[in-house]
Write the C-alpha cells for this entry.
Amino acid sequence: MSCDNFHNYYERLVIEEIKRTLGSPKKYNQDYFADIACVALNHLPPRYVCHAVDMLFYLSPVERKEIEDKVSKAVKDAIQFIELKRKNT
C-alpha cells in the first residue's frame, strides 16, 4: 500500500483560519500570508495524512475542537509576531 499524496493536516486548516481572521486576501501580499502560515505551522505538531477525510473519521468531536482551538491560537500568535516584526523593521 502506498500513499502518493500525503500532506500536513494542519496546512489547509491554517490557511483557512488566516483567511477567516484577516478577511480578503487581496488586502495582503503573498509573502505576508506565507510568513503567517509558516510561523503558525511551526507552532503546531506535524500531523501527516494521506487523506484528510481519513483524519476526520478518526477524530472525536472533542479532538476536532482541540485542533480548531490550537490552529486559531497559532494563527493569532503568528499574526501578532509578524506584525511586531514589520513594525520593528
